Amino acid sequence: MVVFNKFFASVFLAIVYASVSDAIIAPSYSRHSTRRSRNVGRGLQLDTFHPETKFETFGAGLQQPASLAPLSLKDATVSFVKSRLGVDATEVAFKNGYTTKSGKFAYVKQLHNDIPFANAVANVAWKDNKVVSFGASFVNTDNIASSTPSVTVESTIPKTEEALDGKYNGHPASLEYLARPDGSVSLTHVIQIQNEETGTWFEAFVDAHSGEIVSVTDFVSDATYKVLPITKETFPEGQEILVDPQDLLASPLGWHDDGTTKTNNTSGNNVIAFKGTQSALTVQSAPDLVFNYTYDDTLAPTDGQNVDAARTNAFYVINTVHDYAYRYGFTEAAFNFQANNFDKGGRGNDRVLMSVQDGSGTNNANFATPADGQSGTCRMFVWTRTPVRRDGDLENDIIVHEMTHGITNRMTGGGTGRCLQTTEAGGMGEGWSDAMAEWTEQKSANITDYVMGQYVINSAAGIRTHPYSTDPAVNPLRYSSIANLNEVHNIGEVWANLLHNVYAALVGKYGFSSTARTNPEGTEGNIVYLHLFIDALALQPCNPTFVSARDAWIQADANRYGGVNKCLLWTAFASRGLGVGAANFRDASAVPSDC
Ligand SMILES: *[C@@H]1O[C@H](CO)[C@@H](O)[C@H](O)[C@H]1NC(C)=O
Ligand SMILES: *[C@@H]1O[C@H](CO)[C@@H](O)[C@H](O)[C@H]1NC(C)=O
Ligand SMILES: *[C@@H]1O[C@H](CO)[C@@H](O)[C@H](O)[C@H]1NC(C)=O
Ligand SMILES: *[C@@H]1O[C@H](CO)[C@@H](O)[C@H](O)[C@H]1NC(C)=O
Ligand SMILES: [Ca+2]
Ligand SMILES: [Zn+2]
C-alpha cells in the first residue's frame, strides 16, 4: 500500500505540473465573463475586471496524497492549491471554509508580500478527502506594483467620495492587490462609500500609488418592483417602487436565482407567479430586474398592464412572507417552500406555484399544501362584486392570508400537510392566516381594529363578520361562540380575535418595532408575538384544538423567554373565554393561581 501511494502521489504531481501553465491566466479574456462596465456616482464610467476563472470538476473526486488526509481544511486546501497551480505557499492565503453534509468548501486568495489579492481567488470543494471541484483565477505577477503605498488612504478619501457621490462609511480600509485587464497588478486602498439617500454602496479600489479609482464593487444588486408594499393592505393605499426588498439572509441568491438558473421574470427560488400556465410570466420591464407595471383598477384585471402588475405584486408578497417567516423559523429544515434548499435541510423542489387571476373560481382564493418536497399552490381569484372586477392580487391581506396556510400546514405536525384537517384545527388555520395578515399591516404601537378583504368587495366592513378588536362591543366573539359555528372561516374569526388580543397585550407591554420583519432579535411586542406564533406551530400536536394551541403558545414562551409572558398570555386568552379550564367550547375566564 505504501508503495502504491507513493507511486500515485508522483503521478498526481506530474499531472499537476503539466497543468500549471494552463491555470495561470491566459492573455486574452472573454469580456462577458471577466468584465462589467458601469456608470457610477457622478457620471464616472468604470470597467471592473475579474481575471478569468478556470473551473474543473472531478466527478467522484480527485484522490489526494495520503499525507493530506490528517490536515485541517485550511492546510489541506493551501497544500492542494499550491501544488495544483505550482505556486509557493506564501502566495496562497486561506480565506474561509465550512462543512455541510454534502462536503467541505474552502476559499483562498492569491497573496504577494503578505498582501491579498481582491480579484485573484480560488475555491476548492472536498468530499471524503477528495477534491471534487476547483476554481481559480490566480494571475501572474511579473508586472506587479510595489507593495509600499506612495499615497495614504486618508488622502484619497475626499476625491473618492466626490467621484462616487457618497461618504466613506467608516468601515476599516484595507490594502489589496488588484489584477488589471492589461496583465499588470495594482496596489489599492479599498474603501467603502455609501449614500444613504440614493441607496448606493460601493467598495472603491483606489490606486495606492496614483490615487486614481481603478475599480468598484457594487454591493447593491438592484431589483426594482412596483408593488403594494407589505405594510399596505389594499390597492387604494398606492403602489410604490421598491428597490431591493429581498432579504439575503433568507434568500441568499435573491429572488431570481435558484443557484442554477437566473431569471428576468416572476420565477425564482421561492415562487413562480404566473397566469394560466407556468410559461405565462411577467418579464422585467427594463434591464437589471426592473418590474415597473402600474395597476389601473378602472380597467378590467386583464387589461392594460394589470396582469403584469398582478403577477409582480403576487411574486413580491410571497417572497416577502418567505423572507420574514424564514427569520422567525420557517426555514428549509422547518419544511418551507423553496426550489433549492442550499444544503440547509428539508426537501427542496417545492417553491410556491402562484396562479394569479386564476380561472377556476371567483370571489375567493385558496392555498393547497402537500407535504414538504411538493410545491404549494396558491390560486388567487378575481372578485365580481364591483362594476369593474377587482383582483385579489392587489389586496395584500389576501395573499398573506393564503401564504400563511402554507406556513401553518407545514409547521404543524412536521411538514406532512395533514395536520390541520379537523373542523377546529382548520378553523384555527383560517384564524392564523388572518392574524398574520394583520401582523404585516399594523404600523405602530397604536393598534387599530383590523378588517380583512375590504377592497375586493368594496365594503369597509370587509369579508368577516366583525373587525378584529380588543373592544368586546366591536368584536364579541368568545371561545364559546364556536359551539354555534360550523364553518372554518367563522371559527377562524374566533381564533384570530383571540390572537388580536394577545398581540395587543404584547405590543401594549413591549411596544412596536418597525423593523420586525428583518430584525427578529428585538424585544418589542410585535417581535415577541411572531416568535411565539411560529414557535407554537412547531410545538402543537397534529390537529390541535383551541386549548392545545393556547398551551403551545404558553410553552413557546417558556422555551424562548423563560415564561416571562405566561400571565400576560393567560390573561389575554382568558379575556375571550380561553382561560384555565376552558373545554368543549365552554368559556373559562380563570388564569393560573400564580398570575
Ligand atoms: C423565465 O426565465 C427563465 C430563466 O431565464 C426561462 O427559462 C423561462 O423561459 C422564462 N419564462 C418566461 C415566460 O419568460
Ligand atoms: C430576459 O432574458 C432572456 C434570456 O434569458 C432574454 O432573451 C430576454 O430578452 C430578456 N427579456 C427582457 C425583457 O429583458
Ligand atoms: C416606472 O415607469 C414610469 C412610467 O413609465 C416612469 O416614469 C418611471 O421613471 C419608472 N420608474 C422606474 C424605477 O423604472
Ligand atoms: C391611533 O389610531 C387611531 C385610528 O387610526 C387614530 O384615530 C388615533 O389618533 C391614533 N392615536 C395616536 C396616539 O396616534
Ligand atoms: Ca421544502
Ligand atoms: Zn383561508
TrEMBL record:
Its cofactor is Zn(2+). It is found in: Secreted. The keyword Secreted applies. GO terms for molecular function: metalloendopeptidase activity; zinc ion binding. Binds 1 zinc ion per subunit. Belongs to the peptidase M36 family. This is Extracellular metalloproteinase.
